[in-house]
Amino acid sequence: MTAAFSKALREILAPMDASFEAFSHDYPFPYSGWHYHPEYEIHLITKSKGSFYVGTFAGEFEPGNLVMTGPLLPHMWVSTDSGDDWDPIRKQIPERDVVVHFSERFAASCLQSFEDCASLKTLLDEAHSGVQLSSKTSRRAGVILEDLMEARGLDRLARFFRLISVLADDPDRRCLSFALPQGPMKMAGRLNAVLAYIADNFSRSDLTCASIAAAHDMSPSALSRAFEKHANCPCVEYINRLRVYKACQLLAETEVPVTTICYDVGYDVLSTFNRNFLRFIGTTPSEFRARRAFGPDGKQRFDQTNSRLGGALMAGDIRAASGRPNLVPGASALYKKID
Questions:
Q1: Which of 2, 19, 147, 231 could form a disulfide with 178 if both were Cys (CB 3.0 to 4.6 A apart)?
Q2: Domains in the chain, please, with CATH?
Q3: Which residues form the HTH araC/xylS-type domain (predicted)?
Q4: Sequence-separated (6 or more) residues with CB below 8 Å from residue 282
């Protein structure tokens, strides 16, 4: 390979190579809570068991849980049984998560550049509602993900596309939540703006569907129709799910009193909080915390009280300028933690 050709190849690869990233992180971590961002995400859990939340979906996970989410879809994984993976010194589960982020622009470029991309388009469309992959696919993808984090240049690109191919070929994957609207563009843009507004403000006790509609120059009936059509649930239920799922994180990861959590996530009546929690999670907040904070032997699984992340879990004011989050509050809100 000549020097000139090598330089040209690096210049061609550079923008594509920068369009996605693969990394691992520990748990808990300031952005491992209830959050959303504008990139597609492929997320593999390698350690621990617990509950995960994607949009309006709530379920249980164990090692090997592999999920792909689309842009702006809220999601989080809350570990409640660390087994032997908990590091008592660091007060974390080391490298619990393996994550790949890639942009909508990069995805669109792939669809335009390659022929026979029907399976990729289907996968990307389904990711807008969250997709859980089969255990067989998870095992294959896990090997690729491990190599992807270390690969560089053309080899890195090849492994990325191999990963996408494996996910797209999974006949047993399942959609988890509602799908964010893809068209017409005007309504898609407006509803996406509404969902982002709700994510930023759902902890306000005065947030109502009427106030949301007014803030976006929509009538309450138009907002209601948009939610029924695209989210398959009423606006008020979507708000309640965000509140309850955020409460699940705080119950599992902090020792903040249940009543305080009730108010922090946007409820001003404890009985309403308890009723909605039972409806969505199937148990009371206190029972949820007891079951997840302690093992069968009565020993506490997690000790977040003295964790350096304790304040961040409650404050939730973490931003990042690009796919890989930094920890500087006040940076670009492309990566948004839901307070």
A1: 231
A2: 3-175 (2.60.120), 185-337 (1.10.10.60)
A3: 192-291
A4: none
Residue 152: helix, strand or coil by DSSP? coil
With contact defined as beta carbons under 8 Å apart, do 34 and 89 qualify? no
Question: What's phi and psi for 305, nearest 5 deg?
Answer: -60, -40
Name the DSSP letter for residue 228.
Answer: H
Helix, strand, coil shares, percent, the chain, to 5: 45, 20, 35
User: Rounded to whole angstroms, how far apart are CA atoms 169 and 284?
Assistant: 40
Whose structure tokens read 């993808």? 141
Cβ–Cβ under 8 Å, residues 95 and 28 = no
Summarised one tens digit per residue, pLDDT across range 84-129 is 888 888 888 999 999 999 998 899 888 888 777 889 999 999 998 8
Helix (H) or strand (E) segment spanning residue 263: helix 258-264
pTM of the shown model: 0.74
